[in-house]
Amino acid sequence: MLQEQIRNIAIIAHVDHGKTTLVDQMLKATHAFRENQQVQERVLDSNDQERERGITILAKNISIEYQGIKINVIDTPGHADFGGEVERVLKMADGALLLVDAAEGPMPQTRFVLSHAIAAHLAIMVVINKIDRDGANPEKALNDCLDLMMDLGATDEELEFAMEHVVYASAVNGFARLDPNDGNMDMYPLLDMIIDAMPAPDVDLEGPLAMQCVTVDHSDYVGRIGIGRIYSGTIHAGDKILVVKNDGSREMSQVKQLFTFDYLGRKECSEAQAGDIAAVVGVDHTDIGDVYTDPENPVELDPIEIDPPTMSVVFEASTSPLVGRDGDIVGGRQLKERLMTERENNVTMRIEELPDKTGVEVAGRGILHLSVLMEQMRREGFEFQVGRPRVLFKDDGHGHKLEPIEEAVVECPGEYSGKVIELFGNSGGNMTNMVSGVKQDHLEFKIPTRGVMGLKNRILNVTHGEAVFYHNFLEYGPMEGELGKRQNGAMISMSTEKAVAYALGNLQDRGTLFVGPGDECYEGMIVGERSKPGDIVVNIARTKSLGNQRSSTADIAVQLTPPRTFTLEEALEYIMDDELVEITPKNIRMRKRILSEVERRKWRVRHGLVDK
User: Fold this and answer.
1) What's the pTM?
2) pLDDT for 148-175, tens place per residue?
3) Which residues have C-beta within 8 Å of that of residue 404, sequence separation ≥ 6?
4) Any residues with CB less than 8 A from the CB of 338 and at least 6 apart, and which?
């Protein structure tokens, strides 16, 4: 039976396509927009990390009411590292809005989420945004969307639905149109199409309760909160419910509080009916995939599997000589407490303390997934250090190691295709498909996750910044040989002093510098990359020896090339096993794990690496 009073829709888009602005305008159109409130509960507040990175990190819900019908809007992450969110939250939706830029068309990140939406057989409406932008070509953008859907295996019925339900919008100007030139200046055509065309939830209103938890929130006051869609029946506050875990185990629990989504927040209610999305408080240790059902007539639903982490990194308290200069929180105990709190909130990460208590191992879906947590913590005032990300291997049961294999796609001008293919070959990648276009070549590869680390920058270098590169986890496969080793050595500071322009002027002939004049450096810190293999220790504080006669200051002027700067992801991909990334609220530094040159030499002797 159809729940006609509800529509559940997901929004699929790259954030630059105006996803947040579009939802703002939908709220305004329903007279529910509240000033100074954000549509999403974002990871960070003032300096918004999601906007900086051009991605949505967490899937979040809002709801609006239009013509007596409740519309639940689910925002979806667009990056493959956050696919653990995507695969689950689409289970709550019956339809999706595919939001694309009228000038750019579908972006690489859009392909990832759209493939999951098609696999879930959602009804997909196309929203062509920014039709007022210079260079906008709505017709081409629509054709690209349909071609992409066809390429991802959409059925004829799904393609026909998308062709018949297209809206042309300018979210920043607050209008949606059925034709780019019809002159309409409000959002009602979009809302009307959602109400009229999007399927209502097909649920059993009179049946026994069946609700599945697809995402977990956490509160310091009430603990874990299970959020999911009700597939049948009605749930009431105070109900005794049966909780069926993914492994088949069962336990009784009680609904202490019940919430539904209300515009930008949640509203406590006494009951929620099938078809709606609800949040349940009271189920201890609830997890993804838990089914809340009637103890008398239990309903079985397919379990939800979370893709396992493929990469881990160890967080440690900082041992830098400059510790405490930038951050307020530097202790190992506070670091552990913060990460244990994250374990409660973030079900897609595996967080465990090391047996020797020296650090905390955090495992996630990729470097971006891990670096978002690091970025969040540094903005909270933490100082800490992390080692090189490690790929998590599996055993095939016959004593052979398996490693994660990724599907990588590069779109670049044809003139650079050969160089890109060569890069992948040197990194253990195998090309599986190549499509030559008029302007761009589409290259597909299978490559070990180890080989992906650091590959993005090399691809951008050989293509002069014109390539688009994206990748996502594919499967576990046979172990490849040694990969991902940095070819060039590092320049390592021999003292704890500020860098001096004169010293840097002499060093820049030997390679690429990572620091500039006046930057704080310390013994063991990596201050540059050598142009040859092998590390060297350098004096970054050396000054010119001056005699007692000088005609002018011209002879001490130094022309310095601007230092190379690293983002957090780039630094994690750059370091080797004997190096660390030091992360503070103001700086990202790379250093050797053993700071003293004498101690490093002793370590190499003990491990038989003297001649290597």
Assistant:
1) 0.72
2) 898 888 899 999 999 999 999 888 888 8
3) 310, 311, 391, 392, 448, 449, 473, 475, 476
4) 329, 377, 380, 382
